[in-house]
Each structure stands twice: as C-alpha cells, then as structure tokens.
Amino acid sequence: MAGLRERKKHATRLAIHEAGMRLFAERGFTATTIDAIAEAADVSRATVFSYFPSKEEIVFGDAAAAIDALAERLRERPADETTVAAVRAWLGDLAGWLEPDLILQLRIGREVPAVGARRVQLNREIELVIATALEAELGPDERLAARLAAASLVATLSTIEETAAARMEQEGRGLTAAEIDRLLDGALAFVHAGVAALAPG
Fold first, then answer.
1. Is there a contact between 118 and 57 (Cβ–Cβ < 8 Å)?
2. Which of 100, 97, 152, 154 shows the shortest CA–CA distance to 125?
3. Does residue 61 sit in helix, strand or coil?
4. CB–CB of 29/112 below 8 Å?
5. Nearest residue to 66 via CA among 91, 36, 42
6. How far is CA 12 from CA 51, 61, 85, 104, in A?
7. Domains of the chain (ranges plus CATH)?
8. How confident is the model over 49-87, as pLDDT tens digits?
9. Nearest to 157 by CA among 132, 128, 135, 188
10. Any residues with CB less than 8 A from the CB of 189 and at least 6 apart, and which?
11. How far apart are CA 37 and CA 18, in angstroms?
12. Using one digit for the tens of pLDDT, what is the confidence trace for 188-198?
C-alpha cells in the first residue's frame, strides 16, 4: 500500500511540474499563476503548495528530493564504496536529469532572478552534501580539499547541463548517453585522483 501511495504522490508531483512548465513556456513565468497551474494539473491550489512551497520550486521538479536521496545514499553506502563512486551511481539512477525542458529551465533561471537564485542554492546544497561525505572519508584535516572536490563535481554537472541545452538549441538534439558518460567519467576520474592522493594512509 505504501508503494501505491508513493507512486500516486510521484504522479501528482510530476503532473504539477509538467503543467507548470507548459504554462511557463506559453505565458511566461511571471504571468503564470498558481491557480492556473492547479487547474492545468487538475488539482487544488492547496495541493500545489503541499508539493511545491513556491512557484520557483515547480521549475526544478524533483530536484530537492533527489538531493535528499543523494544524502541518504552517501550515509548508507558500503564502507568500501568511495564518495565519488556513490555520486556517480546516484547520477546514473536519476531519471530525467537532462529532461526535455532543460532549455526552458535554464532560460527561466536567466530571466527570473528568484529562479536563478534557487538554481544556485540547489547546486550549493548538492555541493555541501558531497563535501560532508568527502570530509568524513578524508578526515577533518582535509576539509578544504573535500570542498574543492565537491565544487569540481557540481561545476561538472552545471557544464553538462549547459552543453546539453546548447546542443538542443543548435542541433535539436541533446547529448547522447555515451557523451554524458564520457564527460562524467572524465570529471569524476579527475576528482577521484585528487581525493586518492589526499586519502589518509
């Protein structure tokens, strides 16, 4: 029963996100109201706010939940799994990371300061989650190294998103799975080498 409830909640969240993005594309972010999103998603205004505390959050869909999942994955990872490997696995499990409305998401972020600020905040939250795990892995004396490595990983994610969006705009297609894997694996190998060099013992 819990599984069914979770699936229903996910479906409702997705419906609200998709309705919001559709209206943002048609009317613009500022002109789109919560009431209009609720009507388009066939839910109440209160339901919209129960899933998304602000209109800005609707733009980013499941991002906050994905960050919570990353934090849980890092806390519960096996002792022999590195932080970098766990982050790579998390990225592999993300559904719709480079979703079709990525171009719109980035454009709204550039045009609407509050959305752009939320995007930066989400990236900072990812960075902090990764840095905390890396610091635990490397030891308290390597806090700066942990933060630098985490910042490098988040910068890689942003670069992949921007590259994918540019490809969509210029060529009508995004990055292939193989291209994304190459970019991620290269960046993660770079960070992993730095972390290994600093690892205790």
1. yes
2. 154
3. coil
4. yes
5. 91
6. 8, 11, 32, 21
7. 2-55 (1.10.10.60), 60-198 (1.10.357.10)
8. 999 999 999 999 988 888 999 999 999 999 899 888 898
9. 188
10. none
11. 9
12. 777 777 666 76
Q: Residue 85's closest CA among 201, 194, 191, 200?
A: 191
Instruction: Report CA torsion sign: 45, 48, 49, 55.
Output: negative
b/e string for 42-56 if b means 16 or more Cβ within 10 A?
Answer: ebeeebbeebbeebb
Whole-angstrom Cα distance, residue 162 to residue 115? 16
**Whole-angstrom distance, CA of residue 15 vs CA of residue 104:** 17
Cβ-based neighbours of 191, under 8 Å, separated by 6 or more: 84, 149, 152, 153
Q: Are 47 and 38 in contact (CB under 8 A)?
A: yes
For the chain, the residue count is 201
Q: What's the pTM?
A: 0.83
The two tokens of residue 70 are: 């990353």
d(CA 52, CA 136): 32
Tokens of 59: 């733009």
| C-alpha pair distances (Å), 87 with each of 92, 127, 191 | 9, 11, 11
